């Protein structure tokens, strides 16, 4: 089995010249499916949960050691966009959320489609593995797919939703990724980085991000991040960002700018340090949090 939590760091910028703080960032939690198909949903709830375990073969192939047939575990914790959008003044928001998260499908239809796609890929692999005696008894045949939505910010105007995926399909280790979605719920649009940061401020923003990464890795202010085993000389501001109560946060998945062992990398820049960089839309979103100009 895999650990319930994967490594990762969140770098929160302090005052200029101070060292960045390292805060553990939880990755997808562990779960156990006991061979059943479970659906959990409460009337009016924002969350729709589905856990299912799918055997690799309907009949055990010759040579399979005693024990259970390998299985695919699928665990989905999804946001019900219809429930979330109830009472919204902008009716287009629900459609936008569905298009963004679920390819335009309702949450239950998306669930069935995901299970179908994962099952097809798994069973296709199983047909090849059936005739390989070494693979038949290999633990790598137990696949795992998890998809979890969370809502870090549900403000009057600002809505932040995250989607985290964890998947194992054989090999040395599982993989995982996380993406943040930022919406202006009053207008009913998704907000990109270009909407919240002034174009002329991007070079200065990049400088602050790389300052924090260098502080974390304890390398010189002019050193390449490659000296700290990153994949890049300098990190670029990413579209995978979100607003938090502490500041504007930028997120990179494993392999984007650093190795798998580094886990998630997130840099948080306090609003008072980047206020001059924010475009009008960015300031409106940041003002959802208290004690801002």
Describe the fold and architecture.
The chain is an alpha+beta fold and 293 residues long. It folds into two domains: 113 residues, Alpha-Beta Complex (Actin, Chain A, domain 4), CATH 3.90.640; 150 residues, Heat Shock Protein 90. 25% of the residues lie in helices and 27% in strands. The protein has eight helices and twelve strands. The strands form two sheets. The protein has a seven-stranded mixed beta sheet with strand order 3-4-5-6-7-8-9. Strands 2-1-12-11-10 form a five-stranded mixed beta sheet. The protein is flat. The termini are far apart. The N terminus is likely disordered.
Mind telling me the CATH superfamily name of the largest domain?
Answer: Fervidobacterium nodosum Rt17-B1 like
Q: Tally the helices.
A: 8
Round the mean pLDDT to the nearest integer and report it: 82
Number of strands: 12
Distance from first to last alpha carbon: 49 Å
Q: In terms of structural class, how would the helical and strand content be classed?
A: alpha+beta
CATH topology of the largest domain, by name, is Heat Shock Protein 90
CATH class of the largest domain: Alpha Beta
What is the chain-wise order of helices and strands? Answer: EEEEEHHHHEEEEHHEEEHH
CATH architecture descriptor of the largest domain: 2-Layer Sandwich
The side-by-side strand order for the widest beta sheet comes to 3-4-5-6-7-8-9
Largest sheet: 7 strands, mixed
How many structural domains does the protein architecture include? 2
> Roughly how much helix do the residues carry, as a percent range?
10-25%
Any low-confidence stretches, pLDDT <50, length ≥5? 1-9, 12-37
């Amino acid at each position: 089995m895999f650990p319930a939590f994967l490594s990762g760091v969140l770098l929160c910028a302090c005052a200029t010249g101070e060292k960045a703080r390292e805060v553990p960032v939880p990755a997808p939690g562990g779960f156990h499916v006991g061979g059943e198909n479970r659906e959990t949903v409460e009337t009016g709830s924002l969350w729709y949960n589905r856990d299912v375990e799918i055997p690799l073969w309907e009949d055990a192939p010759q040579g399979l050691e005693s024990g259970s047939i390998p299985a695919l575990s699928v665990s989905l914790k999804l946001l019900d966009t219809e429930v979330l959008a109830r009472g919204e003044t902008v009716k287009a928001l629900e459609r936008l959320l569905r298009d963004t998260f679920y390819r335009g499908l309702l949450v239950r239809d998306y669930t069935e489609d995901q299970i179908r796609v994962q099952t097809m890929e798994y069973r296709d692999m199983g047909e090849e593995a059936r005739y390989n005696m070494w693979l038949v008894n290999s633990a790598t045949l137990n696949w795992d797919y998890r998809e979890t939505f969370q809502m870090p910010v549900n403000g009057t105007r600002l809505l932040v939703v995250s989607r985290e995926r964890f998947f194992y399909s054989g090999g040395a280790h599982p993989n995982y990724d996380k993406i943040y979605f930022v919406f202006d719920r009053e207008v009913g649009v998704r907000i990109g980085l270009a909407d919240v940061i002034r174009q002329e401020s991007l070079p200065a923003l990049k400088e602050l991000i790389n300052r924090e990464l260098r502080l974390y890795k304890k390398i010189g202010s002019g050193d390449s991040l490659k000296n700290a085993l990153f994949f890049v000389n300098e990190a670029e501001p990413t579209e995978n960002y979100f607003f938090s109560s502490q500041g504007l946060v930028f997120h990179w998945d494993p392999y984007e700018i650093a190795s798998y062992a580094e886990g998630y990398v997130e840099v948080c820049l306090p609003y008072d340090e980047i206020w001059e960089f924010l475009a009008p839309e960015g300031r409106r979103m940041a003002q959802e949090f208290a004690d801002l100009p």
